[in-house]
Amino acid sequence: MRWSDTEGLIERGMGEGGYDVIAVSFHTDPRGAAYEHLIDELIEKTDRFLLVDRGRYDDDEVLGVSRVLQRLKPYLIESCTMEEMMMQSGAMYSEGIYYIYRCTPKSGQILKEEANRFHDWLYPSLPDDLCFLKEDGSDYFLSVAHENIYGMGITQEEASELMERIPGLFFRLDRHREFERYLDDAIRHQTDVLQISSYHLTEIPERIRELTHVKKLEIFEQNIFRLPPALFELKTLEELEIMTADLEGIPKGISQLKQLQRLTIYCGSSHHVVPGWRPKPKSELCFDYLPEEIGELTELVSLNISYSGIRELPPELEKLENLRYLGVTNSLIEETPEFVSRMTWLQHVDLSCT
């Protein structure tokens, strides 16, 4: 299938005929109880769903795929090649065998037993891209698991009503252009991924501590200068990316993020460049050092910092035995510290100044 995701809408390509589906997309993939409740909803509202076997391995190499296809066999309506699917609908499809099944409570139960979220429907662990179809063959629920794209062919009003009924569904809605409403919904539905970008914020609200399940947090706000203590109360956080014009520094509280695996910081960043705007010279940036507490992030796999006034690295980095990527680029570091050569477990090091 061919998809594009722009400003909360997912469009399914129909070749020269334009697009046949405009859907409300999800901020994050529903999981756990939200996934199960949504499966029940989809089974009730549609009569068919489809899964894809990419056919790139033998059956004994894709045991999960074989098991699911066997379990669902009693509900099979038809199977089609990529070419047959394209001839039926005119949409673009990728290589594979497409299996179309009847929606029944029992087939829905299998979908709930085999996965905990829609991203689990990812080849070769399971058949690919669970989708639910309307009577005309278009998508009522669509997924492209390897790209983390999920959406439904419903209106904004219908999506809002579903969110009210099913905690854990976090759609991209027009109202999320207002940051406070976006954060309200993110907290209510306990999202595990949050992207804060282009809201023209000058500070991160203390309420962010209420995101008790968030694993990935991306912040692209050029006027954010200070990281609040509440940010370091996110004990479940595994990935943190910050893009801004400058930072006063990384607080010592970062040591509390015991699950953090990836830390990425880009200074000199702007999402709304005005005429005459230029990033500060590196020598004038406030972000000019890493705290020694960063050595307590024992799960850290990737440390990536670009455009800073950092002149030296703390020797405590040597304690990070899970670190595989160390990149501190476009900084004021003049030579590689001796301790870095002792970190033989590193797979890639980039300390280039430009």
TrEMBL record:
Superkingdom in the source lineage: Bacteria
SUPFAM superfamilies: L domain-like
InterPro entries noted in UniProt: LRR_dom_sf, LRR_domain-containing
Keyword NADP: no
Transmembrane segments: none
UniProt KW keywords: Leucine-rich repeat, Repeat
Protein name (record): Leucine rich repeat (LRR) protein
